[in-house]
């Protein structure tokens, strides 16, 4: 069962990467700032099953203007 969960977790991470990649290609642009998507929950632990939800945190770089105000 552990091997199946690990494979399922890996497949879910690959799917999420493909979704982000396709979205950037579809929009034909780069994101306005650097970001990272981090898996959490059962996917991060390698314990996902076919019915697990996909939980991710998006870490987004803060962009400061010349007046040091957040955009």
Give structural notes.
The N and C termini lie far apart (46 Å). This protein is 42% helix and 14% strand. Strands 1-2 form a two-stranded antiparallel ribbon. The protein has one domain (2-60). By secondary structure, it is α+β, with helices and mostly antiparallel strands. The radius of gyration is 16 Å and the shape is elongated. The model has no long low-confidence stretch (mean pLDDT 84). 6% of the residues are buried. It has 2 helices and 2 strands, in the order H-E-H-E.
Number of strands: 2
Helix percent reads 40-55%
- Write down the secondary-structure element order: HEHE
Q: Which structural class do you get from the secondary structure elements? A: alpha+beta
Query: How confident overall, as mean pLDDT?
Result: 84
Radius of gyration: 16 Å
Low-pLDDT ranges? none
Give the tags:
2 helices; 14% strand; two-stranded antiparallel sheet; alpha+beta; 71 residues
How is this structure best summarized?
The chain has two helices and two strands.
How is the secondary structure organized here?
Blueprint: H1 2-27, E1 35-39, H2 42-45, E2 56-60
Antiparallel strand pairs: 1-2
């Amino acid at each position: 069962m552990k091997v199946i969960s690990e494979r399922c977790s890996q497949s879910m991470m690959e799917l999420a990467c493909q979704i982000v990649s396709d979205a950037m290609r579809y929009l034909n642009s780069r994101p306005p700032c650097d970001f990272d998507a981090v898996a959490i929950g059962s996917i991060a632990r390698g314990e996902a099953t076919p019915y697990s939800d996909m939980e991710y945190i998006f870490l987004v770089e803060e962009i400061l203007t010349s007046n040091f105000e957040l955009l």
